[in-house]
């Protein structure tokens, strides 16, 4: 027997349906888990993320018009960028990684000698993911950092 709509018993009793693809489906306020996205919805979600990343890449400048300011290096998709600047204290590197859902990871380092910079570059996975950005980064570090005597 079904409870009357709007009664207290109707609010507590939440029917559960069983779907062949996704298991039990619960309707109501206690339903916490969402169904996994279908392949088509997953592809659409990834396409929207890529479009948002490309939009950020178009907004970020790849070169710097000011010769005294920081030099900006970025990947084609804008997911990774470096800001490089020579300071009296050493070679300042700021690494920004943009992740899905607008999360940003920013790291800032100051290198005084070339060996430390090259060691840091070798440990960074950017050399595999974005090899052109990695080569440009190393080239600028070689040009601006002194070797240890």
Rg, Cα atoms, Å: 26 Å
- Specify the biggest β-sheet: 4 strands, antiparallel
Low-pLDDT windows of residues: none
What global shape is seen? Answer: elongated
Structural class by secondary-structure content: alpha+beta
- The number of distinct helices, counting runs of at least 4 residues, comes to 5
The total domain count is: 2
Give an overview of the whole structure.
α3 packs antiparallel against α5. The strands form 2 sheets. The protein has a 4-stranded antiparallel beta sheet, covered by helices on one side. It is α+β, with helices and mostly antiparallel strands and about 150 residues long. It folds into 2 domains: about 40 residues, no CATH class; about 80 residues, Nuclear Transport Factor 2, Chain: A, CATH 3.10.450. The model has no long low-confidence stretch (mean pLDDT about 75).
SSE blueprint:
Blueprint: H1 8-12, E1 16-19, E2 23-26, H2 39-59, E3 71-74, E4 80-87, E5 90-99, E6 103-111, H3 114-123, H4 126-129, H5 131-144
Antiparallel strand pairs: 1-2, 3-4, 4-5, 5-6
Helix pairs in contact: 3-5
Summarize this entry quickly.
Helices cover 36% and strands 26% of the residues. It is of the alpha+beta class.
List its salient traits.
single chain, 149 residues, alpha+beta, Nuclear Transport Factor 2, Chain: A, 2 domains, 4-stranded antiparallel β-sheet, two-stranded antiparallel sheet, 5 helices, 36% helix, 26% strand, elongated
